Amino acid sequence: MSHLQFALLSIFLATIVGPVSTDFALSQAKSTGFLLVANKAEQTLGIVDPASGRQLATIAEGGVTGHEVAASPDGRFAYVPIYGNSGVGKPGTNGSKIDVIDIAARKIAGIVDFGRGVRPHCAVFEPNSGLLYVTTEIEDTVSIIDPKTLKIVGAIPTGQHESHMLAITRDGKWGYTANVGPGTVSVLDLTARKNTTVIPVCSNTQRIALSVDDRWVFTSDQEKPRLAVIDTQTKAVKTWIQMPGIGYGAAPTPDGHWLVIALPTVNKVGVIDLTTMRVAAALEAPSSPQEVLISPDGKSAYVSCDSSHRIAVINTSDWKVETAIEVGRGADGLAWAAAK
C-alpha cells in the first residue's frame, strides 16, 4: 500500500469510526501487560495500563478486604485473597475466600471458598505445576489450590503462627514464609508438602523475597532498620544489611544485581547492591511505600504507596522516580498480568 493510499484509508476510517486517540494507540503499541493493584482501603482491584500511566478500571471485591493479588501465568485472571478488616495478629474479621477476577471482562468470575475463616493473604503461583499457593494465616498453613477447578487440594503446615507472606523458588521445589509475630521464616518442601526448618530471624519480621538465583532469602526486621539475608543452603541468617528505615516489600531486578525495597517509615525506596550487600541509593517516594514489583523487562520498578493512593514508577537505569500513577485508596499488593 502506498503512502497516499494509506492516508486516504485513514481519512475514510476516521469518517466512519471517528478519530483514534493517540494516547490509546500508543498504549496499545507499548503495553505488554497490565499492572494489578489491591486497593485495600476501598476494597477493589485496580487494573493499570503501565504504558499510559492510568488506572483503567476497578473491580469491587465481593468481601471485606484483599491485601494482595496474584495473576495467572496466562494473564487472564487475578486472584485476590480476602483477608479481613484488620492487620496481622490483630482482632477482626477472618476472611474465608479468594476472589477470582476475569481481567478482560472486569468482573468476578469465580470464588475459592475455604468454608471457614482462615485469613488468606499472600498468593503465589508455582511455576511448574501451575498450582496456586496461598498463606492461610489462622491455620498456620500454606494452602494449595488447583486454579482449574478452584478446589483446595492440600495444605502445608508452617509450624509457626502468623505466616503472612510467601516466596517460592524458581524451580518450584521450596517455599519460604515470613512469620510475623514469631520473627521467623519457615522452609517448606513443596514436593513432600512438609515444613522442614524454622529459621529464627528477629523479634518481629515482615515480607519476604528471593534473589533471582534463589541463593538468598530477604526479610525485614520490624523493630530495627535492617534486612536479614538468609542463606538457602545453610538455612540460617548469613548477614544483615543496614538500611535508612524499616523495610517492607522488596523485589530483585531480573539481572540479579539489585534489590528494590520499600522503606515506609521514612517514605523512601531503597536500592540494594547485591554484590556488596549495601544500600546504594535511597529515593524519595510518595507516603507509605508498601510493595515492589519489577516489570518483566527490568526497566521499571513499581512501588505501591498506601496512604497516598499512588504507584511510584522508578527508572532502573538511573534510579529516578519518573512519575506516580493515581490508583485507589490503600494501594498495596501488586502483580503483573502478561498480555497474550
What is the compact description of this entry?
With 340 residues, the protein is mainly beta. It has helices at 3-17, 22-30, and strands at residues 33-39, 44-49, 54-60, 70-71, 77-82, 97-102, 107-113, 120-125, 132-136, 141-146, 151-157, 163-168, 174-179, 184-189, 194-200, 205-210, 216-221, 226-231, 236-242, 250-252, 258-263, 268-273, 278-284, 289-294, 300-305, 310-315, 320-326, 331-338.
Describe this structure in words.
There is one protein chain. With 340 residues, this protein is mainly beta. The protein is 7% helix and 50% strand. It contains 2 helices and 28 strands. The protein has helices at 3-17, 22-30; strands at 33-39, 44-49, 54-60, 70-71, 77-82, 97-102, 107-113, 120-125, 132-136, 141-146, 151-157, 163-168, 174-179, 184-189, 194-200, 205-210, 216-221, 226-231, 236-242, 250-252, 258-263, 268-273, 278-284, 289-294, 300-305, 310-315, 320-326, 331-338. The protein has a 4-stranded antiparallel beta sheet with strand order 3-2-1-28, with no helix packed on it. It is globular, with a radius of gyration of 21 Å. Mean pLDDT is 91; it is low at 1-30.
